[in-house]
Amino acid sequence: MTRYLIIGAGNFGAGTALSLIKREGTTKVTLVDTTQFPNPRAASHDVNKIVRDDYPDKLYMQMLKKAMPMWRSHDLYKTWYHEVGMLRADSSDFGDKSIASYKEMGIENNSHFLPVGEVRKRWNGAFATANFDGLDKVLFNPTVGFAEADKALGAIVQEAVNQGVEYVLGVMTKLNFGADGACTGVTLQSGETLLADKVLLATGARTASLLAQSAPDNTQLHAGDRLLATGAVSFYAKVHGAQKEKLSPIPVLKNCLPEVKGEGMSILKDGTIKFNCDMCFTNFVECPLTGKRISMAPDEMVYNVWTGPKFIKFFQERARKTLNGLYGKEVEDVAIDAYRMCWDASTPTHDFLITPHPHCQGLYVATGGSFHGWKFLPVIGDYVADMMQGSLEPEFADRWAWDKKGGDGHSANPTYQVVGDLQDWLA
């Protein structure tokens, strides 16, 4: 019988807790996070996030073949999922490749290309002046959409607790190791020690720094160049009255053109529309215990949670450019209400890092969401639980391994590339 300890109640951690508590042979599952759930600092905690299954990458499509029916019909998920469709303005061959993948995988889907002129006329003319420069067609996928992220995440943690998971409030300061070097548990800021047979770090952007501060001199334990703490900026605005009515039928829009690079997440009942800038950035600072510079998520709450209408100048300008590109003149008088930096762990290929730690028995990691992991919420826990129990299928284990067998130059989420470092914009 096995005692599991999961640090981090975001998407990967919450999903794993729920999967493990249902399995035979589990004696105890403890889920630790720094606040009551859902944690507002978690990358998974958000107004809403895109839920789509159009991946040219068949490994992730395989997972979504299981996840999408759950988003549509499972009691835990369907309340939060809104199938409004999605437009993708993209000059690459993404659309052709994803349509081909649907056919190859035997997934029913009627994605198709719409002439730009038709996109401008449909949906009450909401995209009449959007920036589609250089494009003659836009991909439309009618059977995807978005989910209310913080509410869905909260529901998963609550279900896990209902099933018997113990939720512990605490800040992990370090991993603990036995005489043989195996991981035996963690120490919290309060001084309390939590023991377990298997410890999972589902700690997102904080994973690299937690490994370093747990064993400053043991570089084999450190993440090295496998993981990078990266931030991305989201923002939202509210529309009212006739404008709210006009925008009520809009689908999600992802615009990959260099002068736009962002996403508009349809519209909530209260008129809120959330947006992302499709770019990410690092935050290189000195790690106190190792003296080395690594990218770390900032501690200051202003760089982690939703703030007001004033923000760092670079991001205000970038957000406005994205907003105007997505909706054109339709939003020229719409004010941005709030901004948020969302921190995630990015890997070199944007593949997840879901693996036993090869240099520490009893220690496992589930991270590397790389700004595309959230949509897997209904199924990700099963894959992580399989990994912890030694039964993860080889094609997933190889792709998500600590030490990958070479890189083939692919990127599982090619639109989120690093464009700079936060410290440069704060200077």
TrEMBL record:
Query: In its keyword annotation, does this UniProt entry include Repressor?
Result: no
Q: Write down the InterPro entries for this protein, in alphabetical order.
A: FAD-dep_OxRdtase, FAD/NAD-bd_sf, MTOX
Name the domain of life. Answer: Eukaryota
SUPFAM superfamilies on file:
FAD/NAD(P)-binding domain (SSF51905)
Q: Which cofactor does it need?
A: FAD
Alphabetically list the UniProt keywords: FAD, Flavoprotein, Oxidoreductase
GO MF annotations in UniProt? flavin adenine dinucleotide binding; saccharopine oxidase activity; sarcosine oxidase activity
Chain ranges of the FAD dependent oxidoreductase domain: 4-387
Pfam families tied to this protein: DAO (PF01266)
PANTHER family (UniProt xref) = FAD DEPENDENT OXIDOREDUCTASE DOMAIN-CONTAINING PROTEIN, PEROXISOMAL SARCOSINE OXIDASE
Which family is it part of? Belongs to the MSOX/MTOX family.
Q: What is this protein called?
A: FAD dependent oxidoreductase domain-containing protein
Q: Which organism is it from?
A: Conoideocrella luteorostrata
- Taxon lineage: Eukaryota, Fungi, Dikarya, Ascomycota, Pezizomycotina
